[in-house]
TrEMBL record:
One of its GO terms (molecular function) is aspartic-type endopeptidase activity. CDD domains: Tetrahydromethanopterin_reductase. PANTHER family: CONSERVED HYPOTHETICAL ALANINE AND PROLINE-RICH PROTEIN (PTHR43244:SF2), PTHR43244. One of its GO terms (biological process) is proteolysis. InterPro entries: F420-G6PD/mer, Lucif-like_OxRdatse_MSMEG_4141, Luciferase-like_dom, Luciferase-like_sf, Peptidase_A2_cat. Residues 264-302 form the Peptidase A2 domain. This is LLM class F420-dependent oxidoreductase. The lineage of its organism: Bacteria, Bacillati, Actinomycetota, Actinomycetes, Mycobacteriales. SUPFAM superfamilies: Bacterial luciferase-like. Pfam families: Bac_luciferase.
């Protein structure tokens, strides 16, 4: 799939939210989504690890809101056949045009092999083949809808290139603003970049740093992220479990709420179209709304 025409996503604002609701009952999670929309955030992106299934969740969040864009950040390609991802994405696009984004990723070997019982092989060729299979789903499936908007979890230059030639753009995760800039240089002006930015709102500096290290604990053991951070200028000494203080401060927006807001805006200034904020705390599935309310004011949303 190659085109210079920009795919349409109807983001109400340039800043959204990344939140894992796996441990929440869906009616309560829908209430969170409604407040995220009311606060002025433009999207809710949700992960898929080994908990809830992300297309079902997306349908629930879309039906509970009016304008909020819902995206998968990311749908694990090892969790479903390519035809299922394509047809499911088309159905959500038909029901909620302009409001659903199908973010796709190859995940990581430990998660795929132990969490899904799958086989983790060459990520680039695996993703390319998966996208080609998606493209082969006949137009008779949700006729008149067209394919869903697709973004790739792209960190390395070759996967970023693939996100431009075979998808509608990239969803960088755990990157600094400079990486959003490099992604834009590779993709050019006509592809979407939706960057994730983790932040800590409130608390003392020591507590903020502890939350950042806790967030990085699992990721620092995954080769895809370690390689990404080395490409971004960090060193092997920064890649201790949980990350060095330097790594934590580079990847997580900390300090005052205005400092945290500035890290979000920095991605937009670097070329991202939309930034999804992940607020950190003691529990990754905790209620994000208290921090999001404070951050919304600093970001001038609403």
């Amino acid at each position: 799939m190659t085109t210079d025409e920009r795919a349409h996503i109807d983001f109400p604002s340039t800043i959204g939210v990344w939140w894992a609701s796996d441990t929440w009952a869906m009616p309560a999670a829908q209430e969170v989504a409604r407040e995220i929309e009311a606060l002025g955030y433009g999207s809710l992106f949700i992960p898929e690890i080994t908990g809830k299934e992300c297309l079902t969740q997306s349908a629930a969040f879309l039906s509970a809101t009016e304008r909020l864009v819902v995206g998968t950040g990311i749908a694990n390609i090892h969790a479903r056949a390519a035809s299922a991802a394509e047809s499911g994405g088309r159905t959500l696009t038909a029901l909620f045009p302009g409001r659903f984004v199908l973010g796709l990723g190859v995940s990581h070997a430990p998660l795929v092999e132990h969490g899904f019982g799958g086989v983790y092989d060459k990520p680039l060729s695996t993703m390319r083949t998966y996208l080609e299979k998606m493209a082969s789903v006949p137009e008779a499936i949700e006729p008149g809808t067209g394919r869903p908007i697709r973004l790739l979890a792209a960190l390395g230059p070759k996967m970023i290139e693939l996100s431009g030639t075979h998808a509608d753009g990239a969803h960088p995760y755990l990157v600094m603003p400079e990486q959003s800039r490099k992604t834009r240089e590779i993709l050019g002006p006509d592809k979407w970049i939706v960057s994730e930015q983790a932040v800590v709102v409130g608390g003392e500096a020591e507590e903020q740093l502890a939350y950042a290290h806790g967030h990085l604990n699992v990721y620092s053991g995954l080769p895809n992220y370690r390689n990404s951070w080395l490409r971004q200028g960090f060193e092997e000494s920064d890649l201790v479990r949980g990350g060095s203080d330097r790594l934590a401060r580079g990847l997580v927006g900390m300090g005052s709420v205005d400092d945290a807001a500035a890290t979000v805006r920095a991605h937009l200034d670097a070329g991202a179209d939309h930034v999804v904020v992940q607020v950190l705390g003691a529990d990754p599935t905790a209620d994000p709304r208290p921090s999001l309310r404070t951050l919304a004011t600093a970001l001038g949303l609403g």
